[in-house]
Amino acid sequence: MPVKTWDIWVRFTHWGVAGIVVWNLFGPTDQVHRILGYVAAGLVMSRIVWGVIGTTNARFSAWWPTRSRLREYLRSLATGKPQHHLSHNPLGGLMALTLWLLILTLAVSGWMMRLDAFWGEDWPQILHACLSIALQVCVCVHILSAIVMSVWTRENLISAMLTGFKRHSREKGPSP
Ligand code: HEM
Ligand code: HEM
Fold this sequence. Notes:
The protein has helices at residues 8-26, 31-53, 60-63, 67-78, 90-113, 123-153, 157-163; strands at residues 3-4, 165-166. It is mainly alpha-helical. The chain has one domain (3-166): Fumarate Reductase Cytochrome B subunit, CATH 1.20.950.
């Protein structure tokens, strides 16, 4: 039975942020780059608010990667029977937090680069470039994990992020 998982705001912010990140990583570093960078940071901040007031699966309470959740999830991977989560699994949650943090710090370092206060200083540029490399690495791991876990658990996570529906409703049991 398909079950509603991701509301429209989760999906809109995901694909909006993903599009901007790809553009900003590989496109020209002009004014559009700067405006889009701030838009991405705004979308991330709105998603963080949605994590407090949003629908059940969007909320931090549903997927915050606590130490015990992480331990249980890693054990399920080690035994070859990955837990099924309706919201993010704990590793996915950890990655979501990391990606958001990188995008927000990119916006802050981009803003700092252009402040008079840092005129002649190299480190904001270096920080911005290092954060963008870290973001590229994390995005690659993120996409690869989404594909691997979709195949392993036979639950198409990517189509769920597009349509809002997951195929299986069982929460936290082994994947069907
Ligand atoms: C390129 C930049 C991307 C960034 C920065 C990014 C970031 C994120 C973030 C922050 C989340 C958590 C979403 C939320 O809770 O609101 C997420 C989830 C997800 N992303 Fe991405 N993403 C990117 C690209 C992609 C691409 C290209 C795919 C597909 C191949 C993808 C597939 C997914 C899936 C399937 C989930 C949900 C995972 C789950 O079910 O737990 N992402 N992504
Ligand atoms: C999603 C957010 C962002 C990403 C992924 C991103 C990524 C990048 C990348 C890959 C570069 C080239 C780095 C290099 O020199 O090798 C760059 C440069 C630059 N970014 Fe961003 N950026 C983001 C947000 C911003 C924001 C919000 C601003 C400022 C308002 C900004 C301002 C700049 C500027 C001025 C440069 C040129 C730096 C230079 O001349 O060395 N960026 N950014």
